[in-house]
Design a protein that fits this description.
It contains 16 helices and 2 strands. By secondary structure, the chain is mainly alpha-helical. The protein has one domain: Orthogonal Bundle (Farnesyl Diphosphate Synthase). Helix 4 runs antiparallel to helix 5, helix 5 runs antiparallel to helix 7 and helix 10 crosses helix 11.
């Protein structure tokens, strides 16, 4: 099936046109921003420059996709929001640290992120490296001792385990290494999907899985949610790849065409743009089908999934 932009918009009917609702989950976005602000070091405490860089990197504009997945999963499972705040903050801090490091000259060498100078441009490279390091540590500190994390030590430990697995060489860091090693090479579709499953998909899956471990949830529900998260994670990355080709820099907040410039084997570069759009729809359908056992309770995840794959930024 070849999907055009018009067919994509028509395909996503249940809350799906991202252009007509730029922030359909604004309440959760605002909530996690408040919670992050409370947990980040104050900018006027020593070392001031490092703390300012941390706050700049975390509290700037952004979609907060991973915290949204935490809250939407919790909502679908009947878990109160205050029991999800620690997980939502921790995963956003890991994501923020990864962006700070990915933007460095030794990695993707980007000057803009979300319409603003990247951390190493706004501050300096050394400060950016330290800011990323500190954000990563803060994420695990929150899961270990934050009052909002589950009171049960076994649940806290499970959250730490999930986030560590998703962040390390089997997940995000490993995916970035594969991405860097792939520049200028031709990969198979399976290799591209493996790279995306680690670099982007691992934290997407962790967002959903961590939420499900904030309370007692049947293993059968967790299995459905994990399948959903794996599919929507790849769909999210394919949409990112397409936006780098067809997106509006003013909307995206960064230059487009970077993947082609760096000769990265993205999904559209590997299979072509029409086939990538078709795969995006296929993955989205599979993700929604996985939510069927949850019935009407899955509505927040359905709406969020629709928004994510139809977004323009």
């Amino acid at each position: 099936m070849m999907a055009t932009d018009a067919s994509l918009a028509a395909h996503l009917t249940a809350g799906g046109d991202a252009d007509s609702h730029q922030d359909p989950f604004a309440e959760w976005q605002a909530r996690v921003a408040r919670e992050l602000d409370l947990r980040l070091p104050a900018a006027d405490t020593a070392p001031e420059r490092l703390h300012a860089a941390q706050r700049y990197s975390v509290l700037g504009p952004g979609k907060r996709v991973r915290p949204l997945l935490v809250y939407a999963t919790g909502k679908s499972l009947g878990i109160p929001e205050n029991q999800l705040d620690a997980a939502a903050c921790a995963i956003e801090l890991i994501h923020a640290y990864s962006l700070v490091h990915d933007d460095l000259p030794a990695m993707d060498d980007d000057d803009l992120r979300r319409g603003r100078p990247t951390c190493h441009i706004q501050f300096d490279e050394a400060t950016a490296i330290l800011a990323g390091d500190a954000l990563q540590v803060l994420a695990f500190q929150i899961l270990a001792r934050d009052p909002a994390a589950p009171a049960d030590p076994a649940r806290r430990l499970k959250l730490i385990e999930i986030l560590a697995d998703a962040s390390g060489t089997a997940g995000m860091a490993g995916g970035q290494a594969l991405d860097l090693a792939a520049e200028g090479r031709t990969l198979t579709v399976a290799e591209v999907e493996e790279m995306h499953a680690r670099k982007t998909g691992a934290l997407i899956r962790a967002s959903v899985t961590m939420a499900s471990h904030c309370a007692a949830v049947p293993d059968s529900r967790r299995a459905c949610l994990d399948f959903f998260a794996a599919k929507i994670g790849l769909a999210f990355q394919i949409q990112d790849d397409l936006l780098d080709i067809e997106g509006d820099p003013k909307v995206i907040g960064k230059a487009v065409g970077a993947d082609k410039e760096h000769k990265k084997p993205t999904y559209p570069a590997t299979v072509g743009v029409p086939a990538a759009r078709a795969k995006l729809l296929e993955l989205h359908d599979e993700a929604l089908a996985a939510l069927a056992p949850l019935g009407a309770a899955a509505a927040p995840l359905v709406a969020l999934s629709n928004w994510l794959v139809a977004r323009r930024s």
